[in-house]
Design brief:
Blueprint lengths: L1 E6 L4 H11 L4 E6 L9 H8 L4 E4 L13 H22 L2 E7 L22 H16 L4 E6 L2 E2 L6 H11 L3 E4 L3 E2 L2 E2 H16 L6 E4 L6 E2 H11 L7 E4 L13 E2 L4 H5 L8 H8 L20
Parallel strand pairs: 1-2, 1-3, 3-4, 4-5, 5-10, 6-9, 7-12, 8-13
Antiparallel strand pairs: 8-11
Helix pairs in contact: 1-6, 2-3, 3-4, 5-7
Amino acid sequence: MNRFLVTGAGGMLGRDLLAVLGSRSDLSVTATTRGDLDIRDSVAVQTAVAGHDVVINAAAWTDVDGAETQEEAATAVNGDGVGNLARACAATNARLIHVSTDYVFSGKATQPYAENASTSPINAYGRSKLAGEVAVSRLLPHAGFVVRTAWLYGAHGPNFVSTMLRLAEERERLEVVDDQRGQPTWSRQLAALLSSLADAALAGQAAPGVYHGTASGETTWYGLARAVFTLRGLDPDRIRPTTSDRYLRPAARPAYSVLAHRRWTAAGLPPPAHWRSALTQALAPAPASPWREPATAPLPAP
C-alpha cells in the first residue's frame, strides 16, 4: 500500500485532495494542516515526510496582494518551505508533487504557455512561487513534479465563483473585468489530476518536471461570471464587462494566464477537461457542496 502525505490539507484544494485520495482503498493518507506542520521548519518537515512514498504539497502563502509588502515572508513559505519538502523527499526517495501557479509568467503571451516557457513573474507572489519551483528542480531533479494551476475555485474556500454567487444575492448589477484571460479550474478536478499524476509517477510512467494543472479552454473573468449565472438560472445580462484599470490592486495580475497541457499526453494521461464541463459539474445540485461559503477576494490565486 502506497503512503501519501498531503500538506496544506485544510485549504480548498487540500480538502478536495483528501476527498479524492481518501476514497481509494489502495492508499494510506496522512493529512497535515498549517497548524499541524509549518513547512518552514526543516526538522518538522523531515519528521512528517519520513515513511511516505508521495508528498503532495498544497501548503502555500496565497495572499497575492499581501506578498507585495511581505515578500520575504511569502518566500519563506513558497520558496524555502518547498525546499525543505524537496530535501526531505530526496533523503527518503519519496516523490514530491508541488502545486505552483500561472503567476510565474508575465501574462504577456498571446498563445498558451508551454511547460518549458520562460518564466518572468510580475509580482512578489509570483517570484515567491518561482523560488519553490526552482527548489524542486534543483533538489529533486529525478522525483520532483511541479503542477501549475490558475483561477482555482471550489466549495471549500473563498474564490471567484462563490463571490459571484454571493454578489448575485446582494446586487442587481455587477461589473466584472473582461481583459484578463485564463482557465477556470475546479479544485476537485485538480485534485483528481494530482492523484493520477502521483500514480503515474510511482509507476515510472510520468517523467519529473513541470505539468500544467488547469482546465482546458479559456475565457475571461466576465465570461466565467456569465457562465456561473447561466448555470444557476440567473440572468447573465445582469453582469457588465469592465477593464482591470477600474480595480487597481497592490499586485499586478497577468493579463493572459492560459497554459498548455502537452505533458499529460506524454505521460499517458488524459488532458484536463474543458472548464465549462467542470464548472457544470461543480455547480450541480449537491447537499454536501452548497456553494454558500463567504468570499472576500474576487480575483483569487492558487
